[in-house]
Amino acid sequence: MSGHNNNAAPIRFIPQTGRKPSAEDTTTRKAIRRHVMLGKNRGRAPQNPRQPAMQGTAVFRAEDFHQPAEEQSLVIPPRVGTDLSFLDFADPVDPPLMNDTLRFCSATNENMFVLARCISFEAPDTMATCMRRLACDALYVNVMVFGTQTYLDQVVRHNNTTELRRSCLRHYGRALGILRERLAEAERRRGVISDITINSVIILGMHALATGQYGSARNHIAGLGRMMSLRERGLQSFGENKTRSLVDLLRCDISIALATGEEPILFPGGSCEETFRLPDFEVSDEPTRRHPSIGNDGLARIWMVLSRFCAVINKAGIDQTTIPERMLLQTMASVMYGLLSLSLPPDSTDKAIRLAMLSFCASTFLYWGQMRMPLGWLQAEQRRCLFRMKDAHEDNLDPRMMLWMLIVYGITFPAATTDEVEEMRKRLREVTEHCGLTCWDEVRGTMSEFLWIDIVCNTPAQELVEAAHARHRS
């Protein structure tokens, strides 16, 4: 026959005659077993012992995500067809971007909250929620695609090709178009905006903040405020299993205020007291806290609340227990909006302590995992205060308080230049020597008397202190 292929592999048989198997029979058995296992494993994900399962505790790695074409290896040809063939997004997305988005969605709360191990989240299954939204909502699909790429560019890849920029801009434009249509429809029908739409706008605000587009970020948050006003209970409509959305919304609003120095949009002038009151923690074994010489009663009250919150979190870390997500929300909102609303004399000790408390809260509540939002105004203001106060005695400030303020600044805003590194190390050496502290253990013991959370502060603070003294000794 003309279609016959003479090169086709013959069908293999093993005769059962009772004789001992030959070497040829052994090879044939291996070939048959391999063929059977290929069929049995079809559709299963390959198991690579060097690659951890994508859980919330896994660290994002560049090789897990789509790389630009010029960076890809051409040694191994790409696989024909992917597991993504079985997924159906609500809007068209290129397979590489789909893969990145799904990997990002599979990250749990631990990737987005510094205190995650001590928090009991109301809705822990973020992957299932994300998948449902990707399957049914085109707006959410597009904001998640360009939001994922923004995160990866800043945390993993640190670059952005022309191809990726074009894809992200296309999804960004598509998202804005869908959003305008929904808002216009809601206004016509006087309807309430859905939770998915609100979550999508939160992502838009986070994207604008991360890329330094503060005007756009403020517009998104202001729009969210108007959307929430259409609901009967306003922000309180984020009920059970929706606390995470409210936390993200407030984090974005507070971050914009700390980045620009302008008033918060949702709670200007400290108007959150009716919604989020300062919590009253019951801590039976709270360690002794050094109460600084604070003149302002409001600042002193917030200091004590934060001190008790630190004790609760540190105890949860030691006992391996958790606190409710609502407690995190209540503390973050009441403390940070309260600090932002305080009016204190310029160049006063109270103002310097307030700025240090804001920086401490930023590293505790606001940072999105490995991505640090730019907080330019807060960084510039605290730096100016710290390096104006060259001598603690001149400002009637406890030198140990000065040390705490320096370390908090170093943790929240790592030095970016060689000059900044040298300046910070010099100040740390001067202040620790003035306090009579000679090693990290002594510094750690002193810092525990102030606002201090072990899982947030210990590792970066130890690196700061030891680097300062190591360079000096050498």
From TrEMBL:
It comes from the Eukaryota. Residues 1-29 are annotated as: Disordered. PANTHER family: TRANSCRIPTION FACTOR (ACR-2), PUTATIVE-RELATED-RELATED, TRANSCRIPTION FACTOR DOMAIN-CONTAINING PROTEIN. This is Transcription factor domain-containing protein. It comes from Zasmidium cellare ATCC 36951.
